[in-house]
Amino acid sequence: MAPVPLEGHQTPAGNNVPQEGSRGGTISLTVLIDFIIQRTYHELTVLAELLPRKTDMERKIEIYNFSARTRQLFVRLLALVKWASSITKVERSTHIMGFLDKQSLLFVDTADMLARMARETLVHARLPNFHIPAAVEVLTTGTYCRLPACIRERIVPPDPITPSERRSTLLRLNQVIQHRLVTGNLLPQMRNLKIESGRVTFTVEHEFEVSLTVMGDGPNIPWRLLDIDILVEDKETGDGKALVHSLQVQYIHQVIQSRLVDNPQPLTEVYNCLHFFCQSLQLEVLYSQTLRLCRDRLDDHIHVDEYTPGKCLSISYWRELTCKDPKSELGYRLTVQVDTHDPARPLTVVHVPSLGNKECEIADRAIRTDLLSMERLLVHTIYVRTRSRLTELKQEVQTMMKDVEFPVLQPCLRAEQLLVTVDTHTGMLQCHVPQYEAPLIPELQTALNGDHSRLPTLVSELRYWITQRRCEKTLQHLPATPHERLPLLHHPDHPMSKIGRHRMFVRLHKHPNVILIVEFKEKESTQCEIDCSFYLAVVKHSSIEDDPHDDSIETEIPKMYLKVLTLIEFDTFVITHGPFTSVDDQSEKFPGKRKPGGRQEPGSRRTKHPAYFIPELAHVVALCDERIPFVTLAQELTKREIAHQGLQVEANATALVLRLVQLPPSPGVDTQSASWLALLKRLLSVAIRVQGKATKNWMAEFVFYGSPLASSHPKEQGLRRPVYFQYDMGTADTVSKTVDALLNDWSQIVHLYTVVEDLAEYFRIEKYNLSNMVTIKSYSYSRLVLGYGPDRGATVTVDWNSSDKAFRLIFGATNNCVNAHSLMREQLEAHLNRHRNLAQIVHILHETYEPLISISKLPTIPQLGVHNQRPQVPVQTFTIMPQSPTLLRLAYQGMYCLELRLRGGGLVSLRDGAYSRFDRSNVVDEFTPTQGLKAFLSKYVDETAVFRRRSQSEDDNPPSPITMDSDGGGGPMSFLGAHHRGPQSPAQQREGGLRFHPPLTPPSGSNPHTPASPHPAMSQAGQHQSFGSSPATSFNLASPPSLPPNINPSPNMLPHPSPGGLLANSPSNPLHVPSPAGLMPTSSPGPCPTVPVGHSPASSFMGQTGHTDGSPFPSSQSMASPATSNWPGSPSMPRPSPARPGQSPGGTGHSALHSPQADHKPGVSHLSRVLPQRSWAGAVPTLLTHEALDLLCSPSPHPQHLPGPELSPLERFLGCVYMRRQLQRFIQNDDCLTGIPTTEPGVVHFKVETLQCRVGLNPQHLQSLHIKVSPLPDHKEQWTVEEMQIIEKFFDTRAAAPPYKPNALSGFGRMLNVPYNVLKDFVQIMKLELIPGLVQQQQMKWAVQWSLRTPPSATPIVPTGMAAVLVCRTKILVFLQITRIGGPYQSTIEPPSLVLPLVYDVSTNLTQLAEKRDPGPASATTAASLQLKRFAEFGVSHNECSLFPAVRDLLCSLSLPSESQAQVASSPAPPTMQPSPAMQMHSPMPGGVVGMPPQTGAGGPPQQPSGPPQSPYPVGITMGQHPMMGPQ
């Protein structure tokens, strides 16, 4: 039974139709809402109309009812809308229920239909009666015989005859047909027959095929036509289709069949009918083909003259020849027609003019073949006509030109023969030469078709024309261009006018002033052969207005014409049978008998070259190309009065040669000198040849006998010394340049020989010992190569430069050797050209090799970060500036300068190049004096070596007399007299033109550096006696002076004039003044040594008088301390910096009380001295040995093994002096550090909030800068010794360490000038960096490094290279670099490294990370920022500074987003602990924006608490607007 619905409200389905919506009607929600709105609106309208008529209470009741009813309605609507959100489940359930109802209805309907069939339909069902007999008959017999008989009679055909009956009938019928043919009259054309199968078939070739039979054997029974087949075809235009339609064939069949009845000759009638039809069809086919030929291809070349269907077709051809040829009056025509005598014959062809029998047979084949073609008929006919015309022409030409073969030239290529053909379309004769497009062809064709008498002349012209083309072929690979005509100018009587018109002009590419003229003539005996005559014309470019007789006329018109100057006729036999080249006579190599007619027997004539190649012409061109340069060169040599032997052929005919007899002397060479005469004796020969094939060059060979110098080169051992020079072979206009180059090379040989001859004399004198200094590696008369240095690895090449007219030096090296003399090349060249003495150059090279090698070890690469405000500007580290062969200057970073003089005997002298060489009290504008240079250089002085060299030269160089003045400043001969002033001090120079502002402080006797007025300077000059009044007057530096008799020789007297020597009026004079270290009180805030401050031993020689001296900076004229001056900016402003007695960078001690040079050397009696570090002392040269200079310039580890790259001691010293000077500038220009006035030279004192610092060079080696930190008296309890040592060590190894960058000091100074508690945290961070073991002890994940300069990989807040510590208001910006340690990172994986810009706010005690305004994707920096924010939220203690705790938490707790990454940041960092980024910035850094004015915050100029300055450079963010840097 059907399933019962869940709800009982549905109406049952009716009419057995399944209804899916029977469970309830559906309505659209939109329609429902519309209905509800319309209903509400309708009720409102009704209320509006009815309520005015009702009472107030009724109105209220109606309104309430309306409101309640409407509210309930819209509540239902709201519930319906909410329910509709899940309507999909309801719809799915509805569809399921509908589907089940439908299936239920199908079951019910099926049951009802089956019941109805059983009760109603099947009750009345019955089967029909079957035809049982018919079925039995069909099933048993397979047939049915009960059909009516009329069907058999009317429809079924009778049975056919049997095959045997059929064969017998056909045989009988064949006999009847055969009998009738034998007894009848049969035409001969129908003899091709075939009888079979009761029929006879007649076949007429190319016309038709017909089949007949008879219907009985009676004599009067007519023939019966069975089949007709037309054999005429049109294979060219018929497209393979039948020419006769089947209806046409049927009609012909009917006509012929009707004529066969009662006809006495029926077969003849059949043939006549079909034969006439086929001939008419053939003519029609030929006519249609002709029309198509005229239309498609042949145009008017053929014409249908007459066409009669069924009779004839007449066509004319060669119509153009008919019009032009008077012989062909009737024209050329062919006619295809029916034979008039016997129409039964095939079509015949009639030709006009008539042809012979054989020719007619050839033409008739085109008609009587399988292919019926008018085109073939025309082709055969024209072929016959063409052969006839060419045969007639051949006979006529042979009669006209006797004994002449038709080849134009002999020998002749097949492509060069004149071919004559007949145009098949027009019948005209045509000719052409396959190889060329000859311009004579039209005339030849006209003569062939017209007047034949002009043929010999035209053929001769063609012969000349082809010969000209052969000339072009011959010259196509030679450096020459043939021309048929050239614009030549010559007078009428010139021999040029006698040359025939058959000629060729050949212009030689390399000789534009020469033209080769080739004249052609036919041989008288054999006209097919051409003889050539050669002429050589010398021309010059000229205009048409030039008079050929006047060479002086020149116009400004472009010279487009060639004026013939001379003409030379060549003897053909002589020029082709010269030495070493000849064009062989063919008759000699290939003998053959010549016939009387001029022809040679065939077979014996074999050409050596191709027929188009003219060997004589090629040889003459090559001859001219080879000899003309020699002739031109010989003429130029004759013009220069250089004797030569003329052009000659060398032995064995190998080449041409031009030998010179004598060469002129070079300019500036004395012809009577011994070197010139010796060179002429050695010169054996000078020859000029040509070398090369494709590109030819002159080769000049100078052959000399032996050499004045014996060289080690293997090719320079024999007595014959050839020297070769090559020159480019130009045109005749450039031959003078070639001669000039030859003379220049001769000058090179002469000038070099003069100095080599002189050098050979020095080599022969043993006392000069030149053979132990240099080795002659090569002397080839054009250059000299000398080897010198250790193992002779350095080389110098000496040659003469003709363009500069001076000697030139080229330095090289072999065996991995270094040659530093390239630095001095210009100075050495000037010395050689001035003195022209190679022996001096050899001595200079020998003596200066080692010091220059040492100098070359100094780095010269540019560095970034040298300038404070422009770190992106590169500055060269060392600049080497040679002044002379033995003098050069070394500039360090463009600020300091050293002057190095290379002396003999293994010594060099060094002085401060900032002082004038002529007046040691003057400072040059470009450089700044180097403080402490004398003391630094004195540490490398080898007193023993210097004294030994001096004692060896004492006897040979007696000392110069020294005038001893009783009064050093008052005598008329004194250097400080009124009229003779030597080197002047700055105070003395201020009278003329002041460079510096004159200090006006009163003089002080206790402090030699206290400035004073310039006026009393001269009043104190006479208080003592001296040897002179200037540092340069103590000894004459040109020769080592002898010691005064009353003074023992001590190191102070040695020839290097150090400040400790006997220098008059110098503070270093031991007889004059005490050492500044002994007179100055200890002014350092540090602890005083227990040992009292000692005086210099020089103090025992003087009384307790005031300190007076005559140095460039005397006590009364000394400059003020930079800490208290207004920094005038003079180069000499940095104060002297002596080593402070009693203190060292490591603390206090007694070793520093003495001078570093106080080492007592056994065997030498001397006084211990303390070298005063005065700037002016560096102006006096210091003597050093080569070994000391090499030690000074070679990179080496630091003496105290401080970390950093290996640098040379000189670079370390200059770098420290530079950094000290920059620190002084920083103290003066920046308010973050406060300078402390001090009288201690060479030391910088400054203080910050709680500390005072003393910065100076290490007095032991002066190669490092150290700081001594001590607390101020009010803050002694706040600092521990360990913290101060950490600050000192950080300064030594990070701030003042190489590379020396001033911004690192600036960052260190700003780091010190922070509040006390912040500085304490800074020290703790420094401690983690300086003591790496603490990082592992505290189990930190990251190691920290302090960046004093902004690294390139940092966030672009501060420009790269600037100071990385920035204080602005209450914010402090620092950069820290952290590197991952331990963990998953092995030695093969580079650990991650981050550069973190940290901002500490003093007012809020917060440490945060400076980030960009628009944060990018999550990275390691983001993780660090989150870590700092987390610490600021939970871990900040308000009682202490949060900087170091935040950094410590970051180092311990920071984890990367993915620890598997090998590298997170782009900052390079090695796996182990690195030096500070300040030490890694040797290489150029990426640039930033520098030079922008600093930006201020929103509240106007920033206020700097406790004096920290605002950043002097622009930064990447506005300090007053950044969320972490702005005011809180």
Verbal overview:
This protein has 1528 residues and is of the alpha+beta class. The protein is built from 32 helices and 43 strands. A 6-stranded mixed β-sheet has the order 11-13-14-15-16-12, with helices on one face. The chain has a 5-stranded antiparallel β-sheet with strand order 17-18-19-20-21. It is flat, with a radius of gyration of 64 Å. The two termini are 88 Å apart. Residues 1-23, 582-607, 951-1175 and 1460-1528 have low confidence and may be disordered.
Task: Describe the secondary structure blueprint for this structure.
Blueprint: H1 29-50, H2 56-84, H3 87-121, H4 132-141, H5 149-154, H6 163-183, E1 193-196, E2 199-204, E3 208-214, E4 223-230, H7 246-260, H8 266-298, E5 303-308, E6 312-317, H9 319-324, E7 332-337, E8 348-352, H10 357-364, H11 374-400, E9 419-422, E10 429-432, H12 441-449, H13 455-475, E11 480-483, E12 488-489, E13 503-508, E14 514-522, E15 530-542, E16 561-569, H14 572-576, H15 586-589, H16 615-639, E17 644-649, E18 656-660, H17 674-682, E19 683-691, E20 697-705, E21 720-728, H18 735-764, E22 774-779, E23 784-788, E24 794-801, E25 806-813, H19 825-835, H20 838-856, E26 862-863, E27 875-876, E28 878-884, E29 887-892, E30 896-902, E31 907-912, H21 933-938, H22 943-952, H23 986-989, H24 1076-1079, E32 1143-1144, E33 1147-1148, E34 1182-1185, H25 1186-1193, H26 1209-1229, E35 1234-1235, E36 1244-1247, E37 1251-1257, E38 1265-1271, H27 1281-1295, H28 1302-1312, H29 1316-1330, H30 1333-1337, E39 1342-1347, E40 1366-1368, E41 1371-1380, E42 1393-1401, E43 1406-1409, H31 1420-1434, H32 1443-1453
Parallel strand pairs: 12-16
Antiparallel strand pairs: 1-2, 2-3, 3-4, 5-6, 6-7, 7-8, 9-10, 11-13, 13-14, 14-15, 15-16, 17-18, 18-19, 19-20, 20-21, 22-23, 23-24, 24-25, 26-27, 28-29, 29-30, 30-31, 31-34, 32-33, 35-36, 36-37, 37-38, 39-41, 40-41, 41-42, 42-43
Helix pairs in contact: 1-2, 7-8, 10-11, 16-18, 20-25, 27-29, 29-32, 31-32
